[in-house]
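Hi L.,

You mentioned the student needs an example of a multi-chain input paired with its predicted structure. This one should do, with 230 residues in total across all chains.
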Amino acid sequence: MIVPDNTSSQKADSPLRFRLYFRLMDLCLIASVLLLLPLIPGATPAPGPGGEYPTWFLLYGNILIFIGFFLTPVLILARFMRDEYAEQLFRRTTDVLVYLAVALPTLLFWAAALVFIISRTEQAPYPFSLFMVEVTWWSATAQVYKIFCIAFVVIFQFLRWRDSR
Amino acid sequence: MNNRLKVLRAMNDWSQAELAAQLDVSRQAVNAIETGKHDPSLPLAFRISRLFNLPIEEIFDDGHE
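Structure written out for the whole complex:
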């Protein structure tokens, strides 16, 4: 029988900040999936005649924006909330993100070009038609920021899920 | 890297969460070490060693004789 060195009182659970990190990451994953839903045609309610959305949808959207644009970046930066395993997951996630940052724009460009060639129309089907929309620098930056945060959470959780198998 | 962490934990009748609390890491970290998905840092390996009163090489096996 191994006799552990229990000089200090035995704790019942791991530190709260470490547990909270994984729970909040779970929440961010749900928000990330919901933030991607508008890419599916008809997945979100259509605006009314005046362009306004239902109140519940605005509230729901604001919650998702808070999680996606505030909570996720906080978790990315919150080194003190990661134990060494979470830190290893973080580093593996950033490794994948670097490759993705190089490959994704190229893949998207060729996918969009292929859709344009196959569809032989002026207007490519949604969501590829988004590539032809002129946007401000601000909205482009916001989109890149959102996609980066979503990609980080999805990759982090995928690696964590794969490790748990 | 192979290790005997799961066996040692079972001998002491500890859950992963209880062992994680003793080592000041998350339960996920303990699970990842037990399944060989994560190699602990040297400081954590020493904490494990001290907790079970065993030399590191009796807990972890890097496959070399």
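You could point out the following to them. Residues 84-119 of chain A form the longest helix (36 residues). Residues 16-164 of chain A form one domain.

Best wishes,
N.
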